[in-house]
Design brief:
The complex is a heterodimer of chains A (275) and B (261). Chain A is mainly α. Chain A has a single domain, classed as ABC transporter involved in vitamin B12 uptake, BtuC, CATH 1.10.3470.10. Chain A is built from eleven helices and no strands. In chain A, helix 2 crosses helix 8 and helix 10 packs across helix 11. Chain B folds into two domains: 187 residues, 3-Layer(aba) Sandwich (Rossmann fold), CATH 3.40.50; 67 residues, no CATH class. Classes of the chains: A mainly alpha (275), B alpha/beta (261).
Chain lengths: 275, 261
C-alpha cells in the first residue's frame, strides 16, 4: 500500500513540525520563567539516557525520557534552595553531557552514530518514530492547554497563585514533565545540542509581535513550524545537516522579527512625538 | 465566625525564627493593620494567611470557601512576558469585559484595559493589582505595603480608594503599612509586630502603648510617629511576655530598632 508517509521527506516534515509546534509554547514558559539553562541541562543529560538505553537494550525514547525526567526533577528540586542556580545548572548541563559521551564509548559491539544523537537525524525518522513524536507532542500541548491559566498565574507570581488556591510547585512539576517529554521526542529531530534552540528561538522571535501570552505561544508555534519546513527544504537544496539548518532558519527569523520590532517602535515613537 | 484565625503560629526559615506564637483573628468587615520594623515578619504573616508559607508550629484556620483578594508588595513581570491589563485580570479565572471594566473603575484604573502591564506607572500598576484582587468578590482583602514606591499624593489617593471599597463592598481588610498616619486614620485594629505581637488593639490604644513607642517613637526622634506626642522612652513589660527571647538574634527588638534609627 502506498501512503503519504512512504517518503522520508514527508516523514521528516511531519516530525519537524510536530516537535516545533510542541516545543515553541513550552519555550515561552522557559523564557518567561528564565529557565533557559534548565532546558539545556535536561537536554544534555539525555545523551546519558541514549547510552543507558543502548546498554540495556530498551527503546531510546524510554531511556531518554527517564533520564530527562530525573534531571529535570533534580534541577527543579534544587532551585529555590539558595544555590547559585546558574552555576549549578551550568555544571549539571555540561558534566551530564560529558558523562553521557563517556558512557556511550563504553558500549562495545554496538556501532552507533554519535552525530545522529548530538545533532539529530531527521531524515531517518521511521513511521514508529513519527507516531512517538506526535504522541509526545500532543501530550505536551494537552498538558499546557489544560493547565494554561494556572501555569501563567504561577509564572507571574507564586504568591498570587497561592492566594488563588493554586500550588505553584505542582505547576512547576507540569512544566518539568512537559520539558522531559519534548527533549525525548526532539532528540531524533535536532539532537541533544540543539533542543534548547528549538525551545527558545521561536518563542523569542515571537515576542515583538505578541500583546498577550496566548498570541506569543501561537506565533511561536507558527515560527517553529515554518523554521522546520524551510530548514528541511534548504538542507535538501544546499545539502547541509538538517537539524542545524532548521535552527539557522529560526535564528534568522528571530533577527528579522526583533529588528522589525525595533524599527516599528521607533516609527511609532516618531509619529507620536510632536515636531 | 471569624474569616481567618492564626493560632499560636510560628514560622522559621532554616533555623531563623521569623514569627513566634502569633495568635490573630480577622472578623468580617474589619480593617486590621500590621505595623512593625523591617524584618519583623509582616510579609511572612500575610503569606501565612494566603497559604504561601507553611507554619512550623500552630495552625491557620480559614472559614470554609473564604475568598481572598491579595495585593502583593511588588510584582515583577518579566519583560519577555506580554500581558495586557485586560488579560491580567482574567488570571487565573476568566472574567467578562463587564466585570473587568467594573473592577478597574472600582480601583480607579478605568482607562488602562488595553495597556501592557510593563508600561504602567507604579501607581497604575498597584491599582490594576487592586482591581484584580477585587474580581473574586473578596471577603478578605490583603494589602502588603501596597503603596510602596508611590509618592505621598499617590498613596493618599490609593488609601482613599481602599476606604471607599470597604464602604461599598464591606470586605474585611488586612494590610501592612509603614504610613502610620494612614494606619491611625483608617484602622479598626492595629497589630504591632516584631517577630511576635508586641501589642494590639484600637489605634489609640496601640499608639500609647510603650511597646509601640519603643519601636516607632523615640528611636526615630518621633519622625515615624508624627501624630503622637513624645513620652518617655521606656519599654516596660506590662504585656507580660519576654520581648527578646523569641527573636533570632540576642538583641531585644527595640534595641535593634534604635540601632537602625
Amino acid at each position: 500500500m502506498i501512503t503519504l508517509f512512504d517518503s522520508f521527506l514527508v516523514r521528516a516534515a511531519f516530525a519537524g513540525t510536530g516537535v516545533a509546534v510542541a516545543a515553541a509554547p513550552l519555550g515561552c514558559f522557559v523564557i518567561w520563567r528564565r529557565m533557559a539553562y534548565f532546558g539545556d541541562a535536561t537536554a544534555h543529560a539525555s545523551i546519558l539516557g541514549v547510552a543507558l538505553a543502548l546498554g540495556f537494550q530498551v527503546p531510546i525514547f524510554a531511556g531518554v525520557l527517564i533520564i530527562a525526567l530525573l534531571m529535570a526533577t533534580a534541577v527543579s528540586g534544587l532551585s529555590g534552595r539558595g544555590f547559585a542556580m546558574d552555576t549549578l545548572l551550568g555544571v549539571l548541563a555540561h558534566s551530564s553531557l560529558a558523562f553521557g559521551l563517556v558512557a556511550v564509548s563504553f558500549l562495545q559491539g554496538i556501532r552507533i552514530d554519535l552525530m545522529a544523537y548530538l545533532f539529530g537525524d531527521i531524515l531517518a525518522v521511521s513511521r514508529i518514530d513519527l507516531a512517538v513524536i506526535w504522541g509526545g507532542a500532543s501530550l505536551v500541548l494537552l498538558m499546557l492547554w489544560a493547565r494554561w491559566s494556572a501555569l501563567l498565574t504561577a509564572t507571574l507570581s507564586p504568591d498570587l497563585a497561592y492566594a488563588a488556591g493554586i500550588n505553584p510547585k505542582r505547576e512547576q512539576l507540569v512544566l518539568t514533565i512537559a520539558l522531559a517529554l519534548v527533549v525525548a521526542v526532539a532528540i531524533k529531530v535536532v539532537g541533544v545540542l540543539l533542543i534548547s534552540a528549538l525551545l527558545l528561538v521561536p518563542a523569542a522571535a515571537a515576542r515583538p509581535f505578541a500583546a498577550t501570552p496566548e498570541r506569543m505561544a501561537a506565533i511561536a508555534a507558527g515560527i517553529g513550524a515554518l523554521s522546520a519546513l524551510a530548514g528541511l527544504q534548504l538542507s535538501f537544496v544546499l545539502d547541509t545537516p538538517t537539524g542545524p539548518t532548521i535552527v539557522c532558519v529560526a535564528a534568522v527569523l528571530f533577527a528579522l522579527t526583533n529588528l522589525g520590532g525595533i524599527i516599528y517602535r521607533q516609527m511609532v515613537t516618531a509619529a507620536e512625538s510632536p515636531r | 465566625m471569624q474569616l481567618i484565625s492564626l493560632q499560636d503560629l510560628s514560622v522559621s526559615y532554616g533555623g531563623n525564627t521569623v514569627l513566634s506564637h502569633v495568635t490573630v483573628g480577622i472578623s468580617p468587615g474589619e480593617i486590621v493593620t500590621i505595623v512593625g520594623p523591617n524584618g519583623s515578619g509582616k510579609s511572612t504573616l500575610l503569606r501565612s494567611v494566603i497559604g504561601a508559607q507553611l507554619p512550623s508550629q500552630g495552625k491557620v484556620i480559614r472559614s470554609p470557601g473564604l475568598r481572598i483578594g491579595y495585593v502583593p508588595q511588588k510584582l515583577h513581570i518579566d519583560p519577555t512576558l506580554p500581558m495586557t491589563v485586560r488579560r491580567f485580570l482574567s488570571l487565573p479565572d476568566k472574567v467578562s469585559n463587564q466585570q473587568a471594566r467594573e473592577a478597574l473603575e472600582q480601583a480607579g484604573a478605568g482607562q488602562l484595559s488595553s495597556r501592557q502591564m510593563v508600561d504602567l506607572s507604579g501607581g497604575q500598576f498597584q491599582r490594576v493589582l487592586l482591581a484584580r484582587a477585587l474580581l473574586c468578590k473578596p471577603q478578605l482583602l490583603i494589602l502588603d505595603e501596597a503603596t510602596q514606591g508611590l509618592d505621598q499624593p499617590g498613596s493618599a489617593a490609593f488609601y482613599q480608594q481602599i476606604e471607599i471599597l470597604r464602604q461599598t463592598l464591606g470586605c474585611a481588610i488586612l494590610m501592612v503599612s509603614h504610613e502610620l498616619h494612614v494606619v491611625m486614620a483608617a484602622s479598626d485594629r492595629v497589630i504591632c509586630l516584631n517577630g511576635h505581637i508586641c501589642c494590639e488593639g484600637e489605634p489609640e490604644h496601640v499608639a500609647s502603648a510603650p511597646e509601640y513607642r519603643a519601636l516607632f517613637g523615640s528611636g526615630t526622634q518621633g519622625a515615624l510617629a508624627l501624630y503622637r506626642h513624645e513620652h518617655n522612652h521606656s519599654h516596660d513589660h506590662s504585656c507580660g511576655h519576654d520581648h527578646g527571647k523569641e527573636l533570632a538574634g540576642s538583641h531585644s527588638p527595640h534595641v535593634t530598632q534604635e540601632a537602625r534609627g
